[in-house]
Design goal:
mainly beta, 12-stranded mixed sheet, outer membrane lipoprotein receptor (LolB), chain A
């Protein structure tokens, strides 16, 4: 199962989007540095009448060629101490609690790592395993949560929007997706989607936060290294 998956965002990525390119969605050469608090809510009703609610939050940091995405966890929610001190058969890194760090190199190649602060460990993830850690391999999606090129193919909506933002719609008649796009920040403030039957609804919201004075990828001195394959043994 993927490390983390935003159902609403994944739905947008997978849909065919209609409409002509819009100047408002043009991507600047260097999008501004950004800190976001992201909340995901997925509501589903199964065929047997069972209702399920999924909620979780993340923090995203974007600066230059670095992207940091971390789940926001309650204190000791995943019993990290128990994971790290367990017997050999149970001792493993809690992947869901690790941050995902993506860097774009000068030649355009991407480097993906998991960062476990509790164990002070960096895990190099090869391209073949990116999907297992919730990364689709697209730099634009990592930078913006949703590729601005997809926004450019969506239809602008007359729906009222706060200053500096605009609503767009894509998807299909059976699975519409509406996105509130922050034009200057180049990220979706809100992604709403649902199916025609009303049995699934997804909502993702993102709001700005102040950038931390010290960025997390500058605080990794002394961390150990592992390969992703080492976690599978």
């Amino acid at each position: 199962m993927p490390y983390r998956l935003c159902a609403a965002t994944a739905l947008v990525w997978g849909l065919t989007l209609a409409g002509s390119a819009q100047a408002a969605a043009a991507t600047p050469a260097h999008p501004p540095a950004l800190a976001l608090h992201i909340e995901h809510h997925v509501h589903t009703v199964s065929a047997d009448g069972v209702t399920r609610e999924l909620r979780y939050s993340e923090q995203l940091l974007r600066q230059g060629e670095q992207i940091w995405l971390a789940r926001i966890l309650p204190h000791h929610a995943h019993s990290e101490d128990e994971h790290s001190s367990g017997a050999k058969a149970h001792k493993h890194m809690d992947i869901a609690a690790a941050a995902r760090w993506v860097q774009r190199q000068g030649d355009g190649q991407l480097q993906v790592r998991l960062v476990n602060a509790h164990e002070r460990l960096l895990v190099d993830v090869p391209p073949a395993e990116w999907g297992q850690v919730g990364f689709d391999g697209q730099w634009a999606n990592a930078q913006h949560l949703l590729d601005p090129a997809q926004i450019a193919r969506m239809k602008p909506l007359p729906r009222p929007a706060p200053a500096g933002t605009r609503w767009y719609q894509g998807g299909s008649s059976s699975q519409p997706v509406q996105v509130l796009w922050d034009i200057q920040g180049q990220f979706p403030q809100r992604i709403e989607s649902h199916n025609a039957q009303g049995s699934q609804r997804s909502l993702t919201t993102a709001r700005r936060q102040p950038l931390p004075s010290t960025l997390p990828w500058t605080q990794l001195t002394g961390y150990g290294h592992k390969e992703y394959a080492d976690l599978l043994g």
